[in-house]
Amino acid sequence: MRFTHRAPARALLTLAAAGAALITAAPASAHVHVDADDAHPGDSAVLTFRVPGESEKGALTTEFSVTLPNVASARTELMPGWTARLDRDTAAGTVRSVTWTAAPTVGIAPDQFGLFKISVTLPKQDTVSFPATQTYSDGTVVHWDQAPLPGGGEPEYPAPELFLTGEPEPAHTPAPPTVAAAPAVDAQPVSRADNGARWLAGGALALAAVAVATALIGRRRA
């Protein structure tokens, strides 16, 4: 009876160990990704492409190219050991793509990744796709240009995709300068002056009356 109770437990442990081995043996999938902080349609943003080295032969990534959606302007960040080239459409006044090329002694190894940054003016749409091409030192070329699978699945070589956050923020309009209010003007300065004069005149009359009364009293006593 003890054996029959232990058999299912041993079987479960065996299956669990096999599952763990499969998970451990499965290679981690790394793709080219694009990110941007607070990107809005029609606004300027700094795009950061994260490019991993994935060569199984130990080859270095020596070139990385991105197709741009005919952006109005683009400017690459200085990257030591790499040169950047913009493909411009002079007739339309837009930039169609950017290509980074490594110096002879530079490249992205299989256990490394590189960050490629470019400032662009984004198109006025909710989602932007950036098909990319990764070239290795042994001549291998990988095209990251596949659209999402039906149902939302991810293809083997998905194109980097950026979801924009919404409408661009309105330009800040400075508030009009505050004008200090003029001091209130006394509407009745003459009336106040008249009142003061009346008080003075009344006081003088009262003093005169007291003086007259005093003089009369003095005469009677004399």
From TrEMBL:
Protein keywords: Membrane, Signal, Transmembrane, Transmembrane helix
Pfam family, one: DUF1775
Name the record gives this protein: Uncharacterized protein YcnI
Chain segments annotated as transmembrane: 199-218
InterPro entries, per database record: YcnI-copper_dom, YcnI-like_sf
KW Iron (keyword) present: no
Species the sequence originates in: Mycolicibacterium fluoranthenivorans
Signal peptide residues on this chain, from the entry's feature table: 1-30
Residue span, YncI copper-binding domain: 31-162
CDD domains: YcnI_like
Domain of life: Bacteria
